[in-house]
Structures are given as C-alpha cells and as structure tokens.
C-alpha cells in the first residue's frame, strides 16, 4: 500500500513537472470572461491578437477583460516569461520583472444601461527587463490553479537588421494563390553567429498565432558582411494569400449598419443577424477594405462611453453545401483565431446554410469562415492579390543565456 502511494506521488510530481513545461496558449478558461485583449491605448484602436511591443516603448500598455458573472471575485495578474516556443523559461521572476509579480486587479467598472451587465477590468502590464515572449495570466482568489485567462504578448529589442520583402511568386503553380517572402538578417560584430544554431525565425500573418514559415532552410552565413541569407529552393517561402476579411458592424442595436440583416430587440438581450454570406473560393478576387482580422470596440449611440457598449448575440449565416467530415468555424482576432465549440457553426439542411451565434461586445468585427481541414479553400478563397500584413520575429539564445531573446522584429504590409 505504501509502495503504491509512493508511485502515485511520483506520477503526480511527474505530471506537474511536464505540465509546467507545456506550451501556453491564448485561452479564456471561463465562459463568463469576455473581450480579452491587450491595449496600447491609441485613438480608435484596432485590437489585434499576439501583440508585439518595443521594449523602449513599454508603459501605458493594459490588459482588459469583462466578467459577466458580477460576483465579487478577486483577480490577480501574473507575468510569465516564455521561450520562443511559448513554453515557460527557467528564469526567476526577479530576472525579468522590475516590480512585484502577482498584482491584484482592483477597482473594476460596472457597465451602464446595458441589457447584459458586466464588470470591466483594466490593469497596466508591468515593465519587463528582457525581450522575449510573455504570458499575462489572470487567476482568481489567490489560487494560481484557478486560472481565468492566459494571454500572449511579445517584447522585442531590435539588435539586428531584418531585410524581409513580400512579393508575388515566380512559380506558375502558386503564382495566383500564394505570396512569397524573401529574407535576410544582418547582425552586429559582437554577435557570435556562424550558423542557425540557437536562432529561430518566425513569420506571422495578420497577427495569427501560428508560424507561416515552419520549414525554413539553413541560412547562408556571410561572416565578413555579418549577414545571413535564406535561400528557398523548394518554395518553402510560399504563404497562402487567403482573402480579405468579412465585416459586421455591431455598434448599434437600434439601426442597421453595415452588413446587418436583422435586429431583434428583446427584454433581456438584443440579437443581430448578419446578411447571409456566400462561399468565395469559386469566385474571382475582389478587393475590399478590412482590418486584417482585427476589431474595434465602439458604440454608435454613445461613442464617448465604452461602458455603455452592450453585449449582443450575433447570428452568422453562411449559405453553402455541407462539407462532410469537416467542422466550420467563424474566427478572427476577437476569438484569437481558435477553432473550438464556442465558434463552430452547425449545418441547417432546411436553409442550406451553416448557422451559429456568438455573444460579442458592440463594435466592428472582421471575421472569416474556416474549416478544420486546412486544405479547404472553398469557404474564403486563396488569392495572391490579397492585402495582408506580416510580422517577422527573430529569436536568439545568446551564449551563456538560459532563455530566448527576441532580438529582431519587422512588420511588412503587402502590397506596399
């Protein structure tokens, strides 16, 4: 009996140890927590996912979220330093923070005149000493196991020069559907780089969390010029162009704004249905202005007080044939591009459409319909002309360090 207890204790410790090394994703762990984002407090701010912040421009950066449960829950903020793969680094918090960790989130504000009441929380992110990846973790009632939110953000320090360009492909096979990246990196004399060892390059598109360049070849190192050039011989630098994002304007529950089909005002909540959408993959590319997946929190009737922005049920309708053995989702920065049950649409054979609804705070939202089959381009299409923005991040494990620094960051708009 004692032996079995020792075995179970060993397995428990092993499980905790492995869990501590697991990759940390963007996640809202409780259904009542809504509209989680990191803000740079700019005018008419576009809210994106996976924000990258210059280490010299920290300050006035906040984490914001709403709690629809209205209980007197005490929330705390904890900052976790991560490696380039978003697994926690071995650093002690005093090595990367200038202030104390585990900060209480006080003085929430209560919504005003909304059908769905909520408490709005806002807390400044503490300044960090080191570049790299970070997690803003919110937990409840002094219990770190009662995790409420994990939200990614990155701090960069441009110690190198990134020379990345996005263009059209030269291959006839992918020229109409893909965009191609050319990449080189210049580094200073004090950097001991003679190969790609301890160096990682990541390319994101429209702030999506995934790396769009997962199979990058080894670079050609020109030691005299202190430059690394990446040669792509097998089209490893091809990135699907995708399509422009769709838009829904939910700022008003009294009048139909852009792409709103119907408004149903009830006593306990309001419901807004989009105009029925069509799949776009079988049509020619059409240029449309969008936010590249971002969104804006705003209220048409009360633009100067965001606490009067209500939550509304938004009904999404996609006219389409049924895709067998596939799950169709609606995604954007508003739900961190995640494919889960909360944003999955269900097929209604009587209407010949995928239908679903999501509770969203009033604002303007970009979104796309995505299948869990990554090769299904029927829903949105895939076009080389699509306007996108890209972010190139370069991580480096410096000699003697135990962590990955984010030593370079470049943002590119295509077309320029």
How would you describe the overall organization of this protein?
With 416 residues, the protein is mainly beta. The protein folds into 3 domains: 132 residues, Immunoglobulin-like (Sandwich); 111 residues, Immunoglobulin-like (Sandwich), CATH 2.60.40; 126 residues, no CATH class. The protein has 2 helices and 28 strands. Strands 17, 18, 19, 20, 21, 22, 23, 24, 25 and 26 form a 10-stranded mixed sheet that branches. The relative contact order is 0.17.
List keywords for this structure.
416 residues; mainly beta; Immunoglobulin-like; 3 domains; ten-stranded mixed β-sheet; six-stranded mixed β-sheet; 2 helices; 28 strands; 41% strand
By CATH reckoning, the class of the largest domain would read Mainly Beta
Rg, Å, rounded: 23 Å
Record field, number of beta strands: 28
CATH topology of the largest domain, which one? Immunoglobulin-like
Protein structure class: mainly beta
Q: What's the N-to-C terminus distance?
A: 70 Å
Number of helices: 2
Low-confidence stretches: 4-19
SSE inventory with pairings:
Elements: H1 2-20, E1 27-28, E2 33-39, E3 51-54, E4 62-67, E5 75-82, H2 93-96, E6 103-105, E7 109-110, E8 119-124, E9 132-140, E10 143-156, E11 161-168, E12 178-186, E13 199-205, E14 220-222, E15 227-230, E16 238-240, E17 246-249, E18 260-265, E19 270-274, E20 277-278, E21 295-297, E22 311-319, E23 328-331, E24 344-348, E25 353-361, E26 363-371, E27 388-396, E28 405-414
Parallel strand pairs: 3-10, 19-22, 20-22
Antiparallel strand pairs: 1-10, 2-4, 4-8, 5-6, 5-9, 7-8, 9-10, 11-12, 12-15, 12-16, 13-27, 14-15, 17-26, 18-19, 21-26, 22-25, 23-24, 23-26, 24-25, 27-28
């Amino acid at each position: 009996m004692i032996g079995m207890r020792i075995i179970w204790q060993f397995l428990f410790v092993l499980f905790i140890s492995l869990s501590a090394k697991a990759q940390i994703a963007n996640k809202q762990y409780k259904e009542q927590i809504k509209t989680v984002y990191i803000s740079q407090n700019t005018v008419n701010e576009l809210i994106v996912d996976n924000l990258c912040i210059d280490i010299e421009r920290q300050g006035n950066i906040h984490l914001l979220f709403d709690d629809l449960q209205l209980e007197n829950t005490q929330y705390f903020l904890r900052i976790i330093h991560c490696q380039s793969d978003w697994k926690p680094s071995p650093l002690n918090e005093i090595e990367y923070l200038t202030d104390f960790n585990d900060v209480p989130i006080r003085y929430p504000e209560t919504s005003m005149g909304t059908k769905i009441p909520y408490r709005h929380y806002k807390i400044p992110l503490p300044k960090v000493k080191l570049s790299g990846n970070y997690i803003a973790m919110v937990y409840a009632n002094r219990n770190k196991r009662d995790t409420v939110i994990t939200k990614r953000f990155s701090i960069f320090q441009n110690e190198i020069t990134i020379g990345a360009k996005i263009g059209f492909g030269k291959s006839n096979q992918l020229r109409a559907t893909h965009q191609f990246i050319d990449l080189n990196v210049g580094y200073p004399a004090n950097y001991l780089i003679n190969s790609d060892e301890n160096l990682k390059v990541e390319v994101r598109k429209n702030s999506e969390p995934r790396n769009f360049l997962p199979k990058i070849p080894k670079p050609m190192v020109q030691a005299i010029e202190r430059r690394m050039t990446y040669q792509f011989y097998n089209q490893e630098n091809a990135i699907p162009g995708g399509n422009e994002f769709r838009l829904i304007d939910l700022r008003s529950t009294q009048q139909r704004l852009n792409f709103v089909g119907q408004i149903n005002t009830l006593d306990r909540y309001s419901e807004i249905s989009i105009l029925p959408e069509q799949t776009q993959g079988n049509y020619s590319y059409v240029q449309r202005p969008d936010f590249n997946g971002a969104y804006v929190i705003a209220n048409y009737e009360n633009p100067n007080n965001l606490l009067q922005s209500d939550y509304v049920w938004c009904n999404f309708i996609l006219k389409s044939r049924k895709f067998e053995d596939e799950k169709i989702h609606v995604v954007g920065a508003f739900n961190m591009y995640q494919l889960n049950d909360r944003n999955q649409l269900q097929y209604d054979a009587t209407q010949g459409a995928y239908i679903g609804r999501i509770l969203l705070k009033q604002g303007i939202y970009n979104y796309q319909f995505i299948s869990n089959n990554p090769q299904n381009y029927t829903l949105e299409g895939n076009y080389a002309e699509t306007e996108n923005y890209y972010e190139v991040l370069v991580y480096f494990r410096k000699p003697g360090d135990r962590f990955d620094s984010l030593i370079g960051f470049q943002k590119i708009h295509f077309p320029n």
